[in-house]
Design brief:
Elements lengths: L5 H18 L15 E6 L19 E7 L9 E13 L4 E4 L2 E5 L6 E5 L3 E5 L9 E6 L4 E4 L6 E6 L3 E8 L10
Parallel strand pairs: 6-10
Antiparallel strand pairs: 1-2, 2-10, 3-8, 3-9, 3-11, 4-7, 5-6
Length: about 180
């Protein structure tokens, strides 16, 4: 057995501890690039498996897909916002295309947890300009983006029609509040 001086032993223990904390996948919710690793789970009625954190939510009905966003815990969560967009990938030309549908905010009976549901989405009105460019695939957003405070305590659950996508991103405040006129 190799005997090291006490100061070198302490230095090695501290270095090992710091390196373990820095490079452990559980040490930070954000990776070195600052990206927050949100876990996204998608299930339909055929491949549904109850997860421990969301087993109290309804099983997705036929034609519906359950999207679960599990947010990692962050320090100072009040400095973050979650933005969610619901929509569909469409082949579109230069015309403006809209989708029509209602995003319902429902309460889980007996629990009080909120989940979101879109029963159906239809193509809405669009402009009829003459386009010279070929069609390209684009994500068309239903209504507007939803923003809500970042809260890692409970997963966020959505029920969407098949063929509908959910995308999200996290916003972080860049400064403190400043009073107007000062």
């Amino acid at each position: 057995m190799l005997k090291l001086p006490l100061s070198l032993t302490i230095l090695l223990i501290c270095t090992t501890t710091i390196m373990t904390c820095l490079y452990s996948p559980f040490a930070h919710a954000a990776n070195p690039e600052g990206k927050i690793n949100i876990v996204s789970t998608v299930m339909n009625s055929d491949d549904y498996q109850a997860l421990s954190a969301t087993k109290m939510y309804p099983v997705p009905e036929a034609g519906m897909v359950q999207h679960i966003l599990t947010l990692p815990a962050l320090n100072n969560e009040q400095q973050y916002l979650l933005e969610v967009q619901i929509g569909q990938q469409k082949m579109v030309d230069c015309n403006k295309v809209r989708l029509i549908g209602e995003i319902s905010s429902l309460s889980l009976p007996g629990w009080g947890y909120i989940y979101y549901q879109v029963d159906n989405i239809i193509q809405g009105p669009n402009t009829l300009m003459m386009c010279t460019e070929p069609k390209k695939e684009k994500f068309i957003v239903l209504n507007k983006s939803m923003t809500q405070p970042y809260d890692s305590r409970q997963p966020i659950v959505f029920y969407l029609p098949e063929g509908t996508d959910l995308r999200y991103r996290v916003w972080k405040t860049a400064s403190d509040y400043v009073f107007s006129g000062q």
